[in-house]
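agent> Task received from the user: take the single chain below, predict its 3D structure, and emit structure tokens. No templates, no multimer pairing.
agent> Plan: (1) validate residues, (2) run structure prediction, (3) serialize to tokens, (4) report one or two observations.
agent> Step 1 OK, no nonstandard residues flagged.
tool_call: predict_structure(input=
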Amino acid sequence: MKQELVVEWRHIGKDVSNTCERCSETGTNVMSVIREISLFLQDEGISVRFVETKLPAAAVSESNAVLFNGMYLEDLIDGMEVSFTECKSCSCITGEDFVECRAVDYKGERYEAIPPELIIRAALRAVGFEDDPETELIIIEKLNK
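)
tool_result: status=success, residues=145
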């Protein structure tokens, strides 16, 4: 049986261009990574499927999340934690004065938009490529071309 990687991006708003700024950047990064990682994983017998989940404004605390086969990105990378920071962009979308949106903290850095490197690392771990910096680097280099 062929293995599958299901990558789900959750966000408020209508689509990548009509969501909060950080969700939009995360979504763009997810789609770029999927294009590159699909080629690599296809050679390994693993198909990749993308799912976009559009959340209502009331679910802003669940927005800006990426899941891999049902597991949150932050659960696939040791030492990563979720935090919430003020997001003026989400305030505009929800109509509320003060809204906090998801971010992740990793190795002393806060990422409001999830960068491609972390998306790649989580995706590879979700399909059993544990701590494979060489493969991560190859995919990152392809993204940067």
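agent> Step 4: summary for the user.
The beta strands are 3-12, 46-55, 65-68, 71-72, 81-86, 100-106, 109-111.
agent> Done.
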